[in-house]
Amino acid sequence: MELLRGGVDLGGTKIQAVVVDGGHRVLGEARRPTPKDRGPQGVAAEIAATLAEAAAAAGTAVSDLAAIGVGSPGAIDDAEGTVTQAPNVTPEWTGTFALAAAVSELADGRRVRLGNDVDVGTWAEFELGAAREFDSLLGVFWGTGVGGGVILEGAQWNGRGAAGEIGHLVVRVGGARCGCGRRGCMEAYAGRQSMEAHARRLVDKGQQTALFEIMEKRGRTNLSSGVWSRALDRADPMATHLIDRAIGALAAAIASAVNLLDVEAVVIGGGLGTRLGEPYVDRISERMQRHLFRNDRPPAVRVAALGDIGGALGAALLVADQAPATPA
Amino acid sequence: MELLRGGVDLGGTKIQAVVVDGGHRVLGEARRPTPKDRGPQGVAAEIAATLAEAAAAAGTAVSDLAAIGVGSPGAIDDAEGTVTQAPNVTPEWTGTFALAAAVSELADGRRVRLGNDVDVGTWAEFELGAAREFDSLLGVFWGTGVGGGVILEGAQWNGRGAAGEIGHLVVRVGGARCGCGRRGCMEAYAGRQSMEAHARRLVDKGQQTALFEIMEKRGRTNLSSGVWSRALDRADPMATHLIDRAIGALAAAIASAVNLLDVEAVVIGGGLGTRLGEPYVDRISERMQRHLFRNDRPPAVRVAALGDIGGALGAALLVADQAPATPA
């Protein structure tokens, strides 16, 4: 019988699960909102439920899965199976939680392996997505924040465990305050959370925008990627200005990373990257030109090809033969 | 008989040669100005003459050297033994010159291997200098410009051949014009050439400084590292201000690189880095703190330990067993 695997992408707003076969084909998938009020154990239960739903959609059951991979925010200890500090998932997740064991217990004792969400997303694009023909890659996930993953000579580069923080490259010394508390980080200009805070300040100062009207019409409480996309389609001046500013910051930070590492390719994904897609990724690529030290042969810059399920597919790779190297 | 090796650091102002034994001990050294008016062939002749002088100081002759390594600016093709575009060495060096063959012919047919000057300088600090106990390193050479070298898991990372351009990380989008023609590069604030141009503009605007007076007293035509050092010792306000600005830019770019790569160590050398030494490197390290994403465990930040002859020692390593991996 063919070996099926489960993959779960644990995010701040949703849990995405897939069930794949040996050829990485998606046989079933499911998505549920991340529960915010039941702590890490409640999140583990919802992961198991989402997996069960994906398995049912695939015409199978969790008990038939060979193993399960989970991509999570926070600091991952792969050997211990723990996740430390993932308050974006649920506010109570401030300490260390044995997520692998908790999910395994609720998933028929299946083996569970953890990975960093951004790392597995980058790995998925490298193995199965937009960067398959390259040996070195910078993955950029443009969403609430801006995360990054680095692959060099076909292996993930984790440094001392915290490499890849592309969102915290400094693009303006003494510049805007970032969610991380520091100044001038790229994410302070390009992260959706920072952009929303900026938009709210501009509105408080009396500036006009359709952003919040679109948000309310869509029944949202914050500026989702879809809201930004709609406002851009309507040529809303504030949205256009803030996205342009974000593109400038992304281009500078990515070009800086390329000047340092000279990678072959850059893949841009995440909620905003995937939603805005090729026209905007092309604008980032064009804007990078003014900062590239070797602008005669820029890296390939592509939209993430796996879309919303890239993270879950990458998580499933954690328990395949193509599993990325574990952090040193 | 013990195998002796020659190492040459080819710079824009000087040629530094060493003769070393199997234990990397310096048996003899010599230094000559880089000839500016005789083209690449004239530079090759002066390299051979400087080597002969170093060999004589070591009580030997070039004919007794096992092999010779040369670290050079410009684009190096190790296999072909060529250097392309090194106008900082001599203005006529705009095309490709077969430096390895030219030096070999003038050096008794000894085998000559070429490396990038910054890469061999970084490698020397990694093998023999301030970063011996680490596996990953960012080398930063703070001088006329600001060059960088990246070592990951004990091997040089060259990317597609042009990695390590730490001086061209963007620290201010739309900022100061850099010597490379782009805007906002770290080197536009921290490179000695940019700082001198800035100082001259401030003087043209009527500001006072002792920098140019010190320069003339020392019989210089430009602001050398020694001139900056003297001006700082005298608490010259313009020098103090410009060096402080340089430290801010260096700190931001180096912290950005650490946020991306999470290396264990940073070594700061180059004319200014070596001259200003530990107090200023400590200031860069302190200033990095405000930008480090993981500021609870910063990398070790150290002054280059090999000083002026680091580049030549690294060049000699090109022809030792510990030779760095060649660029992919």
Highest-level CATH class of the largest domain in chain A: Alpha Beta
User: What does the radius of gyration of chain A come to?
Assistant: 19 Å
Count of all domains of chain A: 2
- Helical segment count of chain A: 10
Strand fraction of chain A equals 15-25%
The biggest beta sheet of chain A, please? 5 strands, mixed
Estimated structural class of chain A = alpha/beta
Number of strands of chain A: 13
CATH topology of the largest domain in chain A: Nucleotidyltransferase, domain 5
The CATH architecture of the largest domain in chain A can be named as 2-Layer Sandwich
Name the pair of protein chains with the most residues at their interface, and give those residue counts: A-B, 45 and 44 residues
Oligomer: homodimer
Please tell me what the overall shape of chain A is.
globular
Walk me through the topology:
Two copies of one chain form a homodimer.
Chain A: E1 4-10, E2 14-20, E3 26-33, H1 39-57, E4 65-72, E5 75-77, E6 82-84, E7 96-97, H2 99-106, E8 111-116, H3 117-127, E9 137-142, E10 146-152, E11 155-156, H4 187-190, H5 192-204, H6 211-217, H7 225-233, H8 237-261, E12 265-269, H9 270-288, E13 300-303, H10 310-317
Parallel strand pairs in A: 1-4, 4-8, 9-12, 12-13
Antiparallel strand pairs in A: 1-2, 2-3, 5-6, 6-7, 9-10, 10-11
